[in-house]
Amino acid sequence: MDRNKTVAIAVAAIVIGSIGFVAFWYPSTVPDVRIGYLSQDLHQLALKVAVENGWFEEAGIKVELTQYGNGAYEMDGFFAGQIDMGYLGAAPALVKSINQESMITILAAANLEGSAIMVSKAEFDAGRVTTIEDLAGKTVYYPGPSTVQAFLLRMALNQSGMTIDDIIPTTISPAYMEDSLTQDAPAFIIWEPFAAKAEGSGAAVVLKQSSEIWPNHPCCVLASSNSFMAANPELVEKIVEIHYRAENWIVANPTNATEIAIDWLEMDTAVVESAFNNIIYDFQVNRTGIQMYLEFLIYEEQVDMELTEVESFLDGFIDTSIVDAIP
């Protein structure tokens, strides 16, 4: 574990110096809480809804928001002390928490489903790539090894009788995926709205929705660093309550929620509406699903843990007591 912690510190230093994360303050004073989130990730719409509706300000909470390229980078942000709470995928939260001993706790879910394996429209129309099996020996882009999308890609391959070794997995920024498709690199897996954007532009078509790979699968969550939560229990409780309010507002007001998303993402209305319909917004944590993630990661030797440790780890890693107590 010491070696892993040393590697984590080095990675965090590289990330801090090179990923070009964007931070802004709301309002522009010393923040009460620093919250991380992922770049153009429609899964995390609850955070934007809460900001746009003024609910943090209403609660007297000064928030600093910091943007990251993927969940692994955000976990490095937790480790480096850049953020106190964050919206990110369950998979990178698990991997980094275990392998690099980043002490965080999942407090609520943000969404279910909402990713897709996309294939070049040219390759699909030519009949060269119409199934997962057709990806054998080819490059498939993905946003990072510790992301939910990496997990789903491995699962889709396994369901087709393949493994990750049968393809050439290549990390690339979501912003460049659709423009990087070629005959030798015909596919990528990504979160919404990037999947809908690629389909809307005519660059790619859906090969498999994540809902087909694993229906109602866990995806993004709201988490807090353990030290921040211990020092600020009442503040964390208020933030979780705001998140709960935002999730319910999205479900009750899909048209208004979509309008906020369109303004936030600066994408075409049709693209955002399509992406929105592929996501289930839900605050309830699916512990069984997260356990399945973890057991899969152990099986694939992505995390340093024994199966016998799973239950006790999750007892400390997931705490839904705040959302469970909301009337």
What is the count of DSSP helices, taking H or I runs of 4+ residues? 16
Total DSSP E strands? 13
Radius of gyration: 19 Å
Give the domain tally: 2
Poorly predicted residue ranges: 1-25
- The order of strands across the largest sheet is 1-3-2-4-12-5
CATH topology description of the largest domain: D-Maltodextrin-Binding Protein, domain 2
Largest pleated sheet: 6 strands, mixed
Principal-axis shape equals globular
Distance between the termini: 41 Å
Q: Tell me which CATH architecture of the largest domain applies here.
A: 3-Layer(aba) Sandwich
Helix and strand string, N-terminal first? HEEHHEHEHEEEHEHEEHEHEHHHHEHHH
- Approximately how much beta-strand content do the residues carry? 15-25%
The CATH superfamily of the largest domain is known as Periplasmic binding protein-like II
The chain-level mean pLDDT equals 90
CATH class group of the largest domain = Alpha Beta
Q: Could you describe the 3D structure shown?
A:
The longest helix has 20 residues, at 233-252. Helix 2 (45-52) crosses helix 11, helix 4 packs across helix 5 (90-99) and helix 12 (254-265) packs across helix 13. The chain has a six-stranded mixed beta sheet with strand order 1-3-2-4-12-5, with helices on both faces. Strands 9-8-10-7-11 form a five-stranded mixed beta sheet, sandwiched between helices. Strands 6-13 form a two-stranded antiparallel ribbon. The chain folds into two domains: 2-112 and 219-325, D-Maltodextrin-Binding Protein, domain 2 (3-Layer(aba) Sandwich), CATH 3.40.190.10; 115-213, D-Maltodextrin-Binding Protein, domain 2. It is globular and about 55 Å long. 46% of the residues lie in helices and 20% in strands. The protein is built from 16 helices and 13 strands. By secondary structure, it is of the alpha/beta class. Residues 1-25 have low confidence and may be disordered.
